[in-house]
Amino acid sequence: MKKRLSSGFTLVELLVVIAIIGVLVGLLLPAVQAAREAARRMSCSNNFKQLGLGIHNYHSAYNQLPIHKGGTGSTNGVTWDLPSAIDNRQELSMIVGIVPFVEGQALWEQISNPFVAGAIIYPPMGPTPDSAGEAVGTATFYTPWSTELPFLRCPSDPGTGLPAFGRTNYAACLGDSTDGVTHGPTTNLLVQNSAVAQRARAGQRGTFVPRQRAAFRDILDGLSNTIMMGEIATDLGDRSVTTTPATGLAAADFLNNPNLCGAPGGAAATDPLRPLFWAVAGVATGPAAQGRGFRWADGNPVYSVVHTILPPNSPICSANDLGMLDNTGGPLLATSPDKNYGMMSVSSRHQGGAHVLMGDGAVKFITDSIESGNRNNPNVALGQPIPSVPGSRSPYGLWGSLGTKASREVIEAEF
Length: 415
Prior knowledge:
Blueprint: H1 11-62, H2 94-98, H3 105-112, E1 115-117, E2 120-122, E3 170-173, H4 194-203, E4 227-231, H5 251-256, H6 301-304, E5 305-306, E6 317-319, E7 324-325, E8 331-332, E9 341-343, E10 353-358, E11 363-367, H7 397-403
């Protein structure tokens, strides 16, 4: 009688097969994650292209760029940094202007017409972007400013919900200087003033100038050589140096030496063990509801502004002095930290850099290692020494040059 042979696997063979499958899965998962991030990054870039097309269509319609920090002004002679339900105090970001040009016509109809909320009738173009202090969810809340717009969100950014009012991952580029970043050529009462305008003209060298009309003809360095907008990561409430502004410095500090923002041992120091986060001890940050990118309709720096001073994914800082100027050109304190001067770089949740939108509509990915000159040099501004006197080329190398529109800088390197 013949012996019957077994055709099954031995335990050793089974364990070997399981081990091989485990190795293959371990190799496959990173590739899947990388493919998903590549898709998210492409979608993020496509959103930027849509915004660029919207800006160009706006320019074709009105022969100018949308005004950053534009709006209806102040109707009762009160300073622009106080909330108002009857006007928006010229605090609106340039994003508001392009809403009807990026398939946001329904929202634009709400913004551009009187809006009824409970017992309040808001005027066309709405109240200040802080919605006159009304609480979210109440009958009198001005909902357009808190509407989440898909084309303003990069899929790689996980930020969502309150305390944000309506997040944006895209912000206007104001160039390589922080002087005049909250007010441009106007005073605290939104009055055009010669002394204030002179400061703005010297320091505000980017595509957009707060509260001032601009057009493509002003971009003398060439549309393809000048950044219009930059990507920003929104705040997650984790004290990240790229999304939570440190408030311990004075405006003159980072105006005269940008590297003080994030410098070890200073008032705005990163954690030596976790350099992507602020040190817990000794570093003050802004209120939780005033995080980076939290209000797409608000033109103040923390929400919708980028600078080309420190390279991508660098620390951001704001300061509660020189936040605005009175009618004589003297400094006044801002009433809220989100109205402060700020030095805000581009940032993202992508690996190694962030997107920017060029004047010609092209979208570029800028690496964290882009040549950025001497970070200890002061910003170009009125009264600054060489190499930062008004009219100078950017002291921040290729990165700074990409942010200026009319400094006659030749872009010689690939980026």
